[in-house]
Amino acid sequence: MEPTPKQQAVSLITRAERILIAPGRPDADSIGSALALSIALRKLGKEVGIATLDPISQQLQFLPEIETIKSDITGTQDFIITIANADDEPEKLSYVFENGVLNIVVTPKAGRYSAEQVTFSQGSLKYDLIITTDAAELTQLGLIYDQFPALFKEIPVINIDHHATNSYYGAVNLVDLTATSTGEVLVGLLEAMGIEIDADIATCLLTGIISDTGSFQHSNTTPKSLTVAAQMVGFGARQQDIIRHLFKTKAFSTLKLWGQILANLQFDPINRLVWATATYADLSNTESTPEAFSGLIDELMTSVPGAEIVMLITEREPQVVSGSIRTTRGLNAAEIAERLGGGGHPGAAGFKLMAMSLSEALPLILEKVRAYQAARLGQVAPTPTEPAPEAQNII
Predict the structure, then answer these.
(1) Whose CA is closest to 322, among 353, 294, 348, 295?
(2) Left if phi > 0, otherwise alpha if psi is -120 to 50, otherwise beta: which for 140?
(3) Fewer Cβ in 10 A, N or C end of the chain?
(4) Mean pLDDT of successive 10-residue segments in the chain (395 residues)?
(5) For domain 5-74+126-246, which CATH number applies: 3.90.1640.10, 3.40.50.1820, 3.40.1280.10, 3.40.50.300?
(6) Closest by alpha carbon to 114, among 153, 86, 77, 79?
(7) For residue 236, how many other CB atoms are within 10 A of its CB?
(8) Please, are residues 18 and 51 in contact by the beta-carbon 8 Å criterion?
């Protein structure tokens, strides 16, 4: 019988000595999962590194061992000295290391080598295995993949994720589409490896579960996610620390940005649709960063009565429009996002439109979402030449 992905993952991890963990674009689930895995693997005596070149939110600085995450890939790596057009092999190679200075001595059998013949290069990083957490595509690893794409072809990858849009890019793909978070997936892997889950590991895993379920308020919350969360609390997870940092602590700049967005909140009662927008200028004017958007859409989903679809549409950089979608139970947010080139989960999904301003993108987005709702509700969707239903400013 062919081994399961979990068994294959355990086998690869057991054989590996030096492991690189690469989280997806850094949010509570990807970073929490990476830290939990790092702490656990070091219990097995593995040499582990975590690296992301993308900035990590201040909200997550409370997580255990967050300081171990590097902003570059580090590890044992050969330094190669090449002598081109050498007439003969060397007679002797030796080195002298003294007072922090390394002198490498190459003695030719005859003649001499010149400095013009010498070049230098870096060899491959000495990792046996890469584990990605919460990344549906390699491109979702962000800058680390952009700068080191060859690394992910040279070294076996274990892909640990829960997104329906996962492309199964790993040598082993531990992808559970029924899980609410990658943290939930990891619990089963750690148990299969016989690793004791301590309070720090449990805190990291519970952070991902709480974040991706909106503290169990989202429609994706399942009996299993509640059971696993209870297990983590039993192992000593610091639940109140997680809630305080993820949901109850906001920077002043974030509050200003949220206030600006909420002041322009729109509601289309016919299509049961709520949306809010923020331009790149809004970020600059409030001295905020894109991480300030985190959590706002979930607040809207639980706060607007009568809404079945909530969207937050933002310019996080010029000419790039990002959209987040949340839906009530029974509506598939991923189906809506797919109409705009995105994807995700039934209750939470997203999309990105390139080379387009917010003012250009918004009519297109609303047209497609209203058409989706019209088909579902048995209404006649407005054509592009017809006026759309009048929206209400609900603040």
Answers:
(1) 353
(2) alpha
(3) N
(4) 94 96 94 98 95 89 96 69 78 82 82 80 78 95 90 94 93 96 97 96 98 86 96 97 89 88 91 93 87 80 82 92 90 92 86 93 95 82 49 51
(5) 3.90.1640.10
(6) 86
(7) 15
(8) no
